[in-house]
Amino acid sequence: PMEENYASYYTRLVMPVLIREFHSPDEEMKKIVLKVIQQCVATAGVEPDYIRKEILPEFFRNFWIRRMALDRRNYDQVVETTVELANKVGCSDIIERIVDDLKDDSEPHRRMVMEALRKVLENLGAADIDERLEERLIDGILSAFQEQAVATTNLGSREGQIMLDGFGTVVQALGERCRPYLKQIAGTIKWRLNNKAASVRMQAADLIGRTAIVMKKCGEDQLMGHLGVVLYEYLGEEYPEVLGSILGALRAIVNVIGMTKMTPPIRDLLPRLTPILRNRHEKVQENVIDLVGRIADR
């Protein structure tokens, strides 16, 4: 249609001017430029090949830099524009260019990568990610997850949540392709469940909740049984926020492997849960009641 041809024509006129502005030192200008790219790219007539050749190289060179991650509004706009570019050129073209930054020295920058990955994979899935990129992706998220500064994982903090959501989304998007990496992921979880920082323990337990369904898909009942035993050992956790997450993780495992296959066996688990029912903390209550309810239902 006529409009699409026009859109394509105007975008080609505007783009060189915009790309020159990529280098602008002015912060406000940067945000405007990002917004305009986002709108141009979303237009129907703009071809993926044109975006790949003309826009992507300069876009990543100028905007995927550490400084952009330090200002919340810039960070959000970089992520949104990146998501729009992915919608046009596909998932792997974008992930290919940012995945290695999961090992960047700057934690805010790693978080910006994690958030973009999550949004792109939620929109587009992982079908066009080849095996080599998949390996780099898993390697990168494990590294970024382990390198979080304890200060930034404060109980339930936004920063810790971004890492958790990103990790969970990558695992869910890859699905059965995660099989070769699950032992390594479980190893990271176990290691972090033993951390002296409460926030790190909580996040590790929450990650079990995000990955249990994929472990099931991959036929890793034994691995989950093993994690069940590990979690059982942590039922003496003193922080209610963390205990709530440990109970939530046990619940996730029971949900996918079922009561009869649960380890430790339900008859050992129940006596440990009964005293926890007296804990007045809302998150503990919610999770323990649900878990005991499931056991009673069987």
Describe the structure.
The chain has 298 residues and is an all-alpha fold. 72% of the residues lie in helices and 0% in strands. It is built from 14 helices and no strands. It is elongated, with a radius of gyration of 22 Å.
Short summary of the structure?
72% of the residues lie in helices and 0% in strands.
Outline the biggest β-sheet. none
Using the CA coordinates, give the radius of gyration. Answer: 22 Å
The amount of beta strand, in percent, is under 5%
The string of secondary-structure elements, in order, is HHHHHHHHHHHHHH
Q: Tell how many strands the DSSP assignment holds.
A: 0
Tally of alpha and pi helices: 14
Q: Helicity range of the residues? A: over 70%
What structural class is derived from the secondary structure elements?
Answer: mainly alpha
Residue-averaged pLDDT: 92
- Shape field: elongated
> Which regions have little confidence, pLDDT < 50, spanning 5+ residues?
none
Determine the N-to-C terminus distance: 60 Å
Topology readout:
Blueprint: H1 2-21, H2 27-42, H3 48-63, H4 72-89, H5 91-98, H6 107-124, H7 131-146, H8 158-174, H9 182-193, H10 198-217, H11 221-233, H12 240-257, H13 266-273, H14 282-297
Helix pairs in contact: 1-2, 2-4, 3-4, 4-5, 4-6, 6-8, 7-8, 8-10, 9-10, 9-11, 10-11, 10-12, 11-12, 12-14
Keywords:
single chain; 298 residues
